[in-house]
Write a structure and sequence with these properties.
Number of helices: 10
Mean pLDDT: 88
Helix content: 25-40%
Distance between the termini: 64 Å
Shape: globular
Structural class: alpha+beta
Largest sheet: 6 strands, mixed
């Protein structure tokens, strides 16, 4: 494994195993995760779900190479107690939000299935490429034991790339919520010098790497005593592993009074007047960071 500064929290570790045509990335979220979660009082089940979804968002979003691109993860619910789950990643900035029915969520128990949480729901994964104005979206059923299972189905159906995803989250009384994840993928033949375009889910190279990665324990992903490089070495020490640190992750809610004023200026003046309260303010509530912005009508008046 290449010499590198060790990676611990809020920064992906990208790795490749050239001999087996495998690529992957680890991430462990801590301080940035607690900043995002701290804007709301989530019960344990909701906290774990959103924490794992935020880890998945970093794992997928950090694969974007072009500047300005954004990856959005959104659950389209089908009658479950989770009414809305949305996360996005743009240039290292991460945000996420969960809306739920508290009474119904309390009835599902401490370890619910995806069906218990979402009903007949779907997971939408959207990549927006700002540089080329291209958008790609894949939608898969929310099936399996975790949101990571649904994401594996996305890669199998939409990308046809054999993938393994592992997610874990736990709450520590001192450190708060800690969550980690692994994304492992087998490069199709024809990529990075391979001979032809072809994907085999039973390829011996992939079977070997997947079997080893499957030994990873959830507690290892969330254990702050081990760096991400240590995890990569523990799993793949038989091979040469090249590692590289990704962009540092930060809380990325883009709300501000100026931003919302700009959005409101796009509405007709008559509609803005109807939105305003008795004090002449349009009150905007940011669901991501739970902040309220009173925007005076006078500040968003359309210039004559």
């Amino acid at each position: 494994m290449s010499d590198t500064v060790e990676t611990w929290f809020d920064q992906p570790l990208v790795f490749t195993i050239a001999a087996r045509h495998v690529r992957g990335r680890f991430v462990r979220l801590g301080p940035v995760l607690n900043t995002i979660l701290g804007a709301h009082s989530y019960p344990p089940v909701a906290e774990k779900l959103l924490a794992e979804a935020l880890v998945l968002t970093v794992l997928l979003g950090s694969t974007l190479k072009a500047e300005g691109g954004q990856m959005t993860l959104q659950a389209q619910t089908g009658g479950g107690p989770i009414e809305l789950l949305v996360c996005d990643y743009r240039g290292g900035e991460l945000r996420g939000y969960l809306k739920f029915d508290a009474e119904r969520l309390a009835e599902v128990g401490p370890d619910p299935t995806l069906f218990a949480l979402f009903g007949e729901g779907f997971l939408a994964i959207t990549f927006d490429q700002e540089a080329t104005a291209e958008r790609y979206q894949g939608i898969v059923p929310l099936e399996g034991s975790s949101i990571g299972d649904a994401a594996e189905h996305y890669f199998e159906q939409s990308e046809q790339i054999p993938s393994l995803i592992r997610l874990a989250a736990r709450h520590d009384h001192e450190a708060g919520c800690v969550a980690g994840g692994l994304l492992l993928q087998h490069l199709p033949e024809g990529e990075v010098g391979r001979d032809r375009l072809h994907t085999r889910h039973d390829h011996p190279e992939w079977e070997h790497a997947r079997t080893i990665a499957a030994t990873l324990k959830p507690e290892e992903l969330t254990d702050p005593a081990h760096s991400l490089e240590t995890l990569a070495w523990r799993l793949f020490h038989e091979d040469e592993v090249r590692v590289e640190s990704g962009a540092t992750v930060s809380r990325g809610c883009r709300c501000s009074a100026e931003y919302y004023a700009g959005v409101l200026r796009q509405f007709p003046e008559t509609e803005r007047v109807d939105m305003a309260d008795e004090a002449g303010n349009i009150v905007v509530d940011c669901a991501f960071c739970s902040r309220i912005f009173p925007i005076p009508l006078g500040e968003i008046a359309t210039p004559n």
